[in-house]
Amino acid sequence: MFEAVEELLVEHADLEKRLADPSVHADQANARKLAKRYAELTPITRVYREWRQAGEDIEAARELAAEEPEFLAEVKDSERRREELTEELRLLLVPRDPSDDKDVILEIKAGEGGEESALFAGDLLRMYLRFAERIGWKTEIIDFNESDLGGYKDVSVAVKTKGNSEPGQGVWARLKYEGGVHRVQRVPATESQGRIHTSAAGVLVTPEAEEVEVEIHANDLRIDVYRSSGPGGQSVNTTDSAVRITHLPTGIVASCQNEKSQLQNKEQAMRILRSRLLAAAQEEAEREASDARRSQVRTVDRSERIRTYNYPENRISDHRTGFKSYNLDQVLDGDLNAVIQSCVDADAAAKLAVAQQN
């Protein structure tokens, strides 16, 4: 492990020199690529230097303890610190998801439960919008289909960072664990006898694809236009401005009806389509990979029921990690960090176990 770190230190020093050269910044795309790699290596460099210093501290404390026993406590403290740094370094060397720094498109769809499920989908949307606001991310609702009681049958929102994020703190790095079935247990607004019902909503999170990442041929698209609709006659256009785009080779469909013009709706639908095609391509690559590779890429299953929101007990439970807390009201107000961190930690531990086996 430490031989590999020494090589990374050399690369880090080389990148530092190159980024200090003004001529490098003439090519902004290349400069951003170099700066991103430099940012990835900086934590590894810092921790490794602290690890080496801890080793030197241990040797010095042992020499002193040979003459003065009271320094034995310092030896133990330094050894404990070095063990902590060793574990931190191992985690930093775990292969990173190349999409971690990407922005995402997050889609929420009501499931079984009718209006109650749609209302819960609205609660999830607010939770993610508040979470993004707390972190400082930008959000943009791309498309939505409201229910009669003010919930959402489905809604798509783009979540973007406002600048360069720290390694592991990008939008996809944090939100990729949210994909799956979210279950709610509560007394619905439509329940007259106070009985607790269980319903669910589905969340799909995909990294937002750049145009260069997904090649889409015009001949592979079927574009349909139609009049947008809304509950109770609201938001009904008098022109065919809503757009539905079907990618014929895959059957993947994306639509948008909330912008004022057909061109704007087409652009938004293409954003969603690109992200869905990128996600489909990545999933296909994972299916074709070995079992070990799949476990590195996806150690937390996002296809099954992942979380339960129990209103009577004010409890939230993540079924993948065993995380449980009794502050559901705060979580729904955007305090999601602890829940997400349990997934990040479980994912890192699983990847580390695979890396140690290889």
Describe the 3D structure:
The protein is α+β, with helices and mostly antiparallel strands. Helices cover 46% and strands 20% of the residues. It is built from 9 helices and 11 strands. The chain has an 8-stranded mixed sheet. Strands 6-7-8 form a 3-stranded antiparallel sheet. The chain is globular, with a radius of gyration of 25 Å. The relative contact order is 0.10. About 6% of the residues have low confidence.
Q: Which short descriptors sum up this protein?
A:
9 helices, 3-stranded antiparallel β-sheet, 8-stranded mixed β-sheet, globular, alpha+beta, 358 residues, 11 strands
Structure summarized in a few sentences:
The chain has about 350 residues and is of the alpha+beta class. About 45% of the residues lie in helices and about 20% in strands.
